[in-house]
Amino acid sequence: MVKDDKFYACLKYIKESEGGDVNHKSDRGGATRQGVSQNAYNLQQKELGNKGPYKSVFDLKASEIEDFYYYQYKRYNVDKIDDINSRYLYYDALILQGPGKAAKMAQSVCNIKVDGCFGKNSIASVNSMNQKDFQLKFTNQRREHFNNIVKNNPTQKVFFKGWINRVDRILSQIQNGTIQQQYNTIQNQRPLQQDKFNQSAQNPKGIDCSVDVSVLNRIKGVNRMSARFIIESQENIIMSDLATVLSVLHDPSLQNQYKSIQFSLDPIILPNQEEFQQQQKVCWPDAYVDRNIVQDTELATILFDADYLLKLMSLGVEADGKTPFNYPQELQQLGLKSCSQMGQQKQQRLLCRFWLVPQQCFYSQINNKYLIDDIKVACQARQMERVGNNLQDKICQDVNDSAYQFAAKFTQIYDTIAKYYPIFNRLKQLFKAVALGRWMYENNIKANYQEILRFCKKANNSPKAIPILKYEKLGEENKTPIYFTQAEKLQVAKDYLKEKGHPTTQNYIDQIVKQIPDLKGYSVSSSVQYSQGGVNTHCQNMIESKSDPKVDKFINLEEVEIPFFPSKKCSACNRMIENHLSNLNQNQCSIHNDYTCYLCLELITNQDSNPKSCVINNYRYIFHQSCYNQYETIINSNQNDEDWN
Question: Strand (E) positions, 484-584?
Fold first, then answer.
């Protein structure tokens, strides 16, 4: 999971305080590794639904320890405390003294109902209090708590000095600005990583977001309810591709009928021109409105590179028009060869048009979560007929047609071809980005248009006009005999006599004419093959994946914030409203929103069965059913947290 910078700033010093591996006989929490006690770890695993026996904390890897800390950080709403120093202070107490005790101490300091549940009322009270007063009073609460532990249980006296030193050190770090400086350092380092990715972006300082771009290149889908990207473990949908797609869809000056992305290589047709000499790169929607929208982006580069390579492979020739294209051995064995070699071509001049399209898009959808599972790419064949100065499509439907056969073979072994030519895998990623971007747009997931533009990776795609691709092949089998006319024989005889210095009398001319054969020679016809075409990115055949009901595709996938999601401040406290609430046009953050759960602060929707309510401090709050059960357990429990750590 992707963790925020304030978490890392706090964790650095908490781990320093916790130290290494400990297994003290008097420690109620049991064996402890870097602050992770066996008891606390076992409890976390139970909450996650994992069945024991659980591994020893001494076997935990560094990443598992970090995940444990982050789970506590989110589970007990530490991230909802605005001030980073108060957040650090409370987080340390939660780790060392337990979530129930930390909540009770904070509630006592804020002079509100003490129930051990750090919910909406507690968070709002901490955030509204003078932070320096809170930090001093909370520290005193911690000291008093440690005194009571030793007073009630002398066996814990061995830990007392260490506890007090830790509390004093934390207060000193807060007063000296140590935590704030650490947070600033992390923030200042982040743009350096982003500039490296997007040197040619519209914003010269790079992408302005709070997560690494390497994470944003692993997008698999979107959670509409949380307004977050769903991330997988490896590179999948590239952020810059998705941003370019969304920049088209959210372009305020572009009409809906033009919001599709296509690319083609079109021959430049001049009047009375027998041969095509040049072709131009044409991008849509740019061509509709006569301005650059995708033309200067990396997305257009991918479309051109994939299409151009397809044309070379269809012609069976390199860009010079002479050197034969060298198909890899495996592709040859699978039957891939040039279009002209696929069948007997009767036409002397062939103009084929091959299109790369997303033939089928497979997706998974559960409630508000949407994943792009796979894309099947197809090559479509069309023949073009020149009518005056225009070209008209003629769809290839004849299975014996060589263009049809080439396109069908290319489609059949597309994934194998992509092993040798990575641009076709890159095109597949781009098609996924288009499918996801369109779903986001159609499902009203909000986006800030100007922020989207910062993620569009720019590229220099000039020149726009390039030499046309063609393959001119001499046909030995098409020799045509040419015979001398009588006039030509007379002229040849006269030229010969003049060259030799003989008189051009009729007698000499007749003698030479008799020696000239009737056959003048042969004319060798040439077969000129052109290959045009393009890429249409829009998939019209969306298919929901057939999945095993026992397999939850979403369970192990992480989520990250959508960096160009529009920011909005809470009308009650001026803090930023969470994305999922802003996406639903809510004007208050999760702390002050009437429709979020008191305990977990997540939105309660129509899909939640039997929500509960409870009056706390003369105000009625609502709960998820499961959260209400947890809340009752907390307030009815008399067990202390001394054995937490």
Answer: 519-536, 542-544, 558-561
How confident is the model over 307-362, as pLDDT tens digits?
Answer: 999 999 999 999 888 889 999 999 999 999 998 888 655 443 456 789 999 999 99
The pTM of the full predicted model, rounded to 2 decimals, is 0.74
> What pLDDT shows up at residue 427?
98
Burial annotation 339-378 (CB, 10 A radius, 16+ → b, else e):
bbebbebeeeebbbbbbbbbbebbbbeeebbbbbbebbbb
Measured CA distances, 32 to 53, 56, 535 (Å): 17, 9, 58
CATH 1.20.141.10 positions along the chain are: 5-176
Burial 571-589 (b: 16+ CB within 10 A, else e): eebebebbbbbbbbebebb
Which value, in Å, is the radius of gyration of the alpha carbons in the chain? Answer: 37
Q: Is the bond into 191 cis (omega within 30 degrees of 0)?
A: no
573, two tokens: 């406290």
| Dist CA 450 CA 417 (whole Å) | 38
Question: What is the spatial distance between Cα 376 and Cα 358, in angstroms, rounded to a whole number?
Answer: 6
Cα(528)–Cα(425) distance, rounded to whole angstroms?
Answer: 31
Q: Does residue 641 carry a pLDDT above 70?
A: no
Q: At what angle do helices 84-97 and 131-152 cross, to 10 degrees?
A: 10
Would you mind telling me the total number of residues written for the chain in this entry? 645
CA angle 194, 261, 219 (to 5 degrees): 40
What is d(CA 439, CA 371) in angstroms, rounded to the nearest whole number? Answer: 10
CATH classification number, 5-176, choose in 3.40.47.10, 3.40.50.150, 1.20.141.10, 1.20.1530.20: 1.20.141.10
Sorted by sequence, the CB contacts under 8 Å of residue 558 that are 6+ apart come out as 1, 2, 230, 231
Q: Average pLDDT in the 210-239 region?
A: 88
Q: What is the DSSP-derived secondary structure letter of residue 148?
A: H
Question: Among 67-71, 72-76, 196-200, which is the least confidently predicted range?
Answer: 196-200
pLDDT at residue number 207: 43
Peptide bond before residue 611 is cis, with ω within 30 degrees of 0? no
Integer CA distances (angstroms), 363 to 220, 560, 633, in order: 10, 20, 40
Span 474-492, average pLDDT: 75
Read off the pLDDT of residues 429-454 as tens digits, 9 standing for 90 and up.
999 999 999 999 999 999 999 999 99
CA pair distance 544, 365, nearest whole angstrom: 8
